[in-house]
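**Paired protein data**
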Amino acid sequence: MAHKPSRAAPTRYQHHRPRETKGFPEAEMYEELLQDRDPRNHILPVELLDAETRPILLMPWLSEFYVLQLYKWRTSDFLKLFLQIVEGVEYLHDHNITHGDICHGNVVAATERDAQGHPEIQPGRVYIIDLETVRRIPAPPGVQLALPLPQAQFRPPIEDMSQLDPYSWDVYCLGRLFGMCTGDERSPYSYTHIIDGLLATSGDAWVYVDAVPQPGERAKPSPSRYACSVY
């Protein structure tokens, strides 16, 4: 059970060990990973609250990864941001842990505003959330055999595929996320749609890309929280 407070609600990130975490894998995994101060650890800091019957995870409300991407939309800046996601997944794999659902909804980023009131949040840093599908794998990468696929946002590369090496599945999801950010025409947040939005305007200082255009149509500027400036 996880709750996201508003930006006005500060979080101290003190780990209050719940009376009973056994049987709640997500809480157990958060508690374990947040004790490791490895700089490659990109798991979002949360507060584990003591509860009568089950642990409660309290986490800060950060921006979607795309927001930070569009604030720094040069290719080199985007690659540096995406490398943080790769680094976080690599850290998990080095500990024989797989995430299972790397996707746009499970990656957040901290802006200067997001970090206010949250001392352990670093502006410009990318964090991985949602550990419901996280698994500890018996064998390391390159050795582990196929396991049943978890329920995830991305579909398998082959229809009716039900098993895959879990480390390879994480890498596949990373590739799909990268494709969404850089050129997948089904994503309104990709560079393809941003450029289409720029070409569809005439001299505006800001371009807002909101909806996915139909085939043959250009993205239409419309009010949205996702924006990129025209230099």
About this structure: Residues 75-94 form the longest helix (20 residues). The CA atoms of residues 124 and 152 lie 26 Å apart. Residues 194-221 form one domain.
